[in-house]
Amino acid sequence: MTFALITAARDEEDAICALVQSVLAQSVRPDRWVIVSDGSRDRTEEIVEKLILNEPWITLVCIEGGQQRDFASKAYALQRGLAELGELREDFIGVLDGDLRLDPKYFAQLLQVFDGEPELGLAGGQIYEEYEGKQVEHDISRDAVAGAVHLFRREAYEETDGFKPLKDGGEDTLMELQVRAAGWQTRTVRELAVTHQGQVTSGSGGQLALRFRRGYLNWCFGYDPIFAWVAIAYRSLQAPVILGGICQAAGYLWAGIKRPERVVSPELRRFLLAEQRSKLRALLRRGDRLR
């Protein structure tokens, strides 16, 4: 099985070396890898250029400008990487963030999972955040996949709208939802650990800003209201306890007042509502956790 990767990186001089070295050390390497420097103003490009000097299967693309990052900038960078790849001839296409570190057998084991599950359209490893000398598991539901490690079966990727820039973010969630709506399965492979070199959940504006945006996006995606409020209650139990839930609720309510354009089509929202109502029933029966 063959696969290609795209990485969007901006000002990742402290982490990009570990990422590239961990990909070079893979027992099964990508056939092609495009690293897109999204207007980096530090030594990211210099570091990558040295590391890939004798690796013709890796391409560095530099986007000029150093523009301020927004939620759509990653999608634009990934689009540029996809254009660099041209025709997709590999069996799988993946996204790998610039601040990760992988076990040497990560891709070999992930491809083995795909090989054993022909209905699996999108998968990735379990993210662990590394900060203050600790490894903290990123809380994610069983059928969700962190956007930092998306690996699509090519046929499943072709069922999506691709890397679609969204003003408020969430393009990875949209692609994941489209994959499931097309009849494929998605899941995080819990036993495959991926180290995030830093605290991913803090976001650029901190935990509270992240929770507010999550609530806002939940409305934009057209979440079932009961599901959205149960998710808020669940998140209220996580740090920052109570306050995080309040911020997520505030984001959801603010979107309800502002009423921005929905991210999903009416057909996709109907699928999402059916999926969430099924999860609510499972929660009542078995206590399954929500996303």
List the helices and strands and how they pair.
Elements: E1 3-9, H1 16-24, E2 32-38, H2 44-51, E3 58-63, H3 73-85, E4 92-95, E5 100-102, H4 106-116, E6 120-131, E7 134-137, E8 151-153, H5 154-157, H6 171-181, E9 185-196, H7 206-220, H8 225-236, H9 243-258, H10 266-286
Parallel strand pairs: 1-2, 1-4, 2-3, 6-9
Antiparallel strand pairs: 4-8, 5-9, 6-7, 6-8
Helix pairs in contact: 1-2, 7-9, 8-9
Q: What's the story with the biggest beta sheet?
A: 9 strands, mixed
Q: Can you write the helix and strand succession as a string?
A: EHEHEHEEHEEEHHEHHHH
Based on Cα principal axes, name the global outline.
Answer: globular
Structurally, the number of domains stands at 2
Full CATH superfamily name of the largest domain = Spore Coat Polysaccharide Biosynthesis Protein SpsA, Chain A
Task: Please give the CATH architecture of the largest domain.
Answer: Alpha-Beta Complex
The CATH class name of the largest domain reads Alpha Beta
Strand content: 15-25%
Number of helices: 10
Helix content: 40-55%
**CATH-assigned fold name of the largest domain:** Spore Coat Polysaccharide Biosynthesis Protein SpsA, Chain A
SS-based class: alpha/beta
Q: Give the termini distance in whole angstroms.
A: 31 Å
The overall pLDDT, averaged over residues, is 91
Low-confidence regions: none
Radius of gyration: 19 Å
Number of strands: 9
